[in-house]
Amino acid sequence: MSGKTYPVFETWAQNAHISKQKYEDMYAQSVNNPDAFWAEQAKRLDWIKEPTIIKNTSFDPVSIKWFEDGVLNVAHNCIDRHLEKRGDQVAFYWEPDHPDQPAQVITYNQLHERVCRFANVLKELGVKKGDRVTLYLPMIPEITYAMLACARIGAVHSVVFAGFSPEALAGRINDCDSTIVITADEGRRGGKTIPLKKNVDDALPHALGVDKVLVVEHTGANITMKGGRDVWWHEAAAGVDEFCEIEPMNAEDPLFILYTSGSTGKPKGVVHTAGGYLTYISLAHETVFNYEDGDVFWCGADLGWITGHSFTLYAPLSNGAISVMYEGVPNYPDASRFWQIIDKYKVNQFYTAPTAIRALMGAGDDFVTKTSRKSLKLLGTAGEPINPEAWEWYFHVVGDGRCPIVDTWWQTETGGCMITPFPGATDMKPGAATTPFFGVKPQLVDNDGNVLDGEAEGNLCILDSWPAQARTIYGDHQRFVETYFTTYKGKYFTSDGCKRDADGDYWITGRVDDVLNVSGHRMGTAEVESALVSHDLVSEAAVVGYPHDVKGQGIYVYVTLMAGVKQSDDLAKDLRQWVRKEIGPIATPDLLQFAPDLPKTRSGKIMRRILRKIAEDDFSNLGDISTLADPSVVDTLINDRQNRS
Ligand code: ATP
Ligand code: MG
Prior knowledge:
Its EC number is 6.2.1.1. The protein has 21 helices and 31 strands. The chain has about 650 residues and is an alpha/beta fold. The strands form eight sheets. Strands 12-11-8-6-7-14-15-24 form an eight-stranded mixed beta sheet, sandwiched between helices. The protein binds adenosine-5'-triphosphate and magnesium ion. Magnesium ion binds near residues 260, 264, 411 and 495. Magnesium ion (MG) binds near residues 260 and 264.
């Protein structure tokens, strides 16, 4: 794992917001005197009443409060306070699914008017401060209006990714007791349409608390509107005022509920609050991405996930940034789409997930190299461990070797980046998340809770609270305490495995649940998968353990080949030898199955728990599969398992 190091680029060391020295000074203050550090950072925001109590947190018993006597409004901080200086500046470039469909440009003034109207419509529909509002919307501008409208009037949004089924939607509506759903006639993704309104109609018989559905017209599809319940957004918007007062919110009032990706089990409805969350992610956006005034920032994450909440919406707007928002997918109409969008809007910072990077790498370099990408200054990744091979490709082919990469480790529960390089301060190591963000105190422990110092590998905990930390799981505080604070008393347990190298840099090795134990040797999934992905013919790989008579656990690998490469027994043999040579005999795969696709969550993460079941020939009990993106992938893998070798 300790491969190459790319030292900080000289120009970045000199010009970036955060230099090595500045990082060290700020980090030291953030952990030694968090009250002073975060009191200062809170000044990034406009407060109706400035906080005087900064940090009031404990992990045993669990009680987390930041800025608890502060009063602010998140929508005001994201829109109104910028209007004087930036009213006519672009807030969003909105890019449609297909390049021939009309794009939109939305200025801060326009954003203000539309959010106010949306807020007034919600009020007319009876939504009040503290009410939960479920959003089931595609990546169209109206989803940003809806989220910010909730923030404006103090309602709590719960965005459900617009690819989820009616059952999954109903479950999430019921879980947070919302009485209103905002949706669209249809969504578009990769040339396909998704019948969102129809899905809502199918969900509501199982979610009886909902009495209002607000519908955005997007594709113009023929849908049925139910009298007394369903309301067209454009009709309602025409009849309301274009100004809406902001609702003063306590810093600890909830801003949103968001369900985790469901990689390891039933999704958790994580609750984030207003003041700490916005302070933290605003700082992260400026420092980790080195955002400078006038830059064009593009986070490709869907607003259905935390990366979208924090870095497609709230953090860039809090900093008065210009952002890109894209409706579609990376490979439609073809695998050049991302890079063409970057050229079209002269994007300076681009942030996406390893799953997209691996897929585009598998499509071949030509799709990238035929575009310019000259505007790019920095690249980012989040969501899964990035395999060094994919990192190098992102760095050399996409970034032409000029752009630092920030590999940001974080979780829905953490609100913002927790372990991440700073481009002017941190030497980059492909595959390493490297160094803690301000205020973050990582610690590695073994399974018995013993603290591991120095160079070590273990379970990643965080010792103290940071402002963007989730406060609870909606309606189930006990689950919150049990999931995160009980395994290692007094510490936040991330459920991720992690290695600290001799330089003190952190490498996420995968989920603790996925760790392999082969003849007594513990191995993270990331290491074996990265070895496979580093083979020229492999585009993706997933590794799980299965019961093995002699070794305790055997290594079962699923391999997706590069586009156009044929699978064969010889290739399987080569790949085994390859892993053996790259890591050592102990890591030699016992069973190998070629997989045209891997089961992933809808946010693009590999679901190893399902692969483990297939490896064990136990198909009856696959667990919660409602978050699976494409169930047919699982059937193919089950059918193909006879061909493993
Ligand atoms: P669930 O909690 O429901 O099982 P999930 O953990 O996939 O789902 P998210 O909050 O979307 O839900 O994902 C957080 C996880 O993603 C982290 O715990 C980690 O395993 C992984 N992750 C995110 N960013 C990185 C990164 N840069 N490097 C390695 N792993 C990452
Ligand atoms: Mg998780």
